[in-house]
Design brief:
Blueprint: H1 5-15, E1 23-27, H2 40-52, E2 56-59, H3 66-74, E3 81-82, H4 89-97, E4 101-105, H5 108-115, E5 120-124, E6 139-143, H6 162-165, H7 169-173
Parallel strand pairs: 1-2, 1-4, 2-3, 4-5, 5-6
Helix pairs in contact: 1-4, 2-3
């Protein structure tokens, strides 16, 4: 998958975005299976950490993810841009192509980031990278090894959601690749 510089610039101009700083793109959605979503406060904490490191944070997803993006911004990330629901798929692809880092749940956008070969932290809980891995050498798979995961359930059948709650922002931050 490729995005031309012209396609990228059109989308950047449309949304008033610039590439003056490294870009971290968050893909926090996965409406069909809530057990695949990393907690919103964790995305918010990681956004703060990345912004402290000099990144700008863009949040990308469908209209159904807009509320999630709003919550990430509201939790202390007023400079982050919530673009959930504002882009069509081609525009989301162009924005992801700009990323120095993508942080994503196991979702369709994760696979797009992999196809674009962007540096990525792929977060797994109830699903398995053995079945749906990001097919990119630039993807790091992060998951917690607990007996009940992967369960492949829509929601946590045990009610504790440890597969995602125990994957803390600090743990994820330790895997952020160094900027060139």
């Amino acid at each position: 998958m490729q995005v031309t510089p012209e396609q990228r610039q059109l989308v950047l101009d449309k949304f008033g975005l610039a590439l003056g700083k490294p870009v971290a793109v968050f893909c926090p959605g996965c409406r069909i299976r809530p057990a695949k979503r990393w907690p919103i406060p964790y995305f918010a904490e990681l956004a703060q950490h990345l912004q402290d490191q000099g990144y700008v944070v863009w949040i990308v997803g469908s209209p159904k993810d807009q509320e999630t993006g709003d919550k990430i911004v509201a939790l202390g990330n007023l400079s982050a841009r919530n673009l959930c629901g504002s882009t069509d798929l081609a525009e989301a692809i162009a924005l992801i192509s700009c990323a120095s880092l993508v942080v994503s749940n196991d979702s369709g956008l994760m696979h797009i980031a992999a196809a674009l070969d962007r540096p990525m932290l792929a977060l797994y809980g109830s699903s398995s990278p053995g079945f749906t891995p990001p097919l990119s050498p630039n993807a790091q798979i992060l998951q917690i090894d607990i007996p009940c995961s992967p369960c492949f359930k829509r929601e946590c059948p045990l009610g504790h959601f440890k597969c995602m709650k125990n994957l803390t922002p600090k743990m994820v931050a330790e895997h952020i690749p160094a900027l060139d």
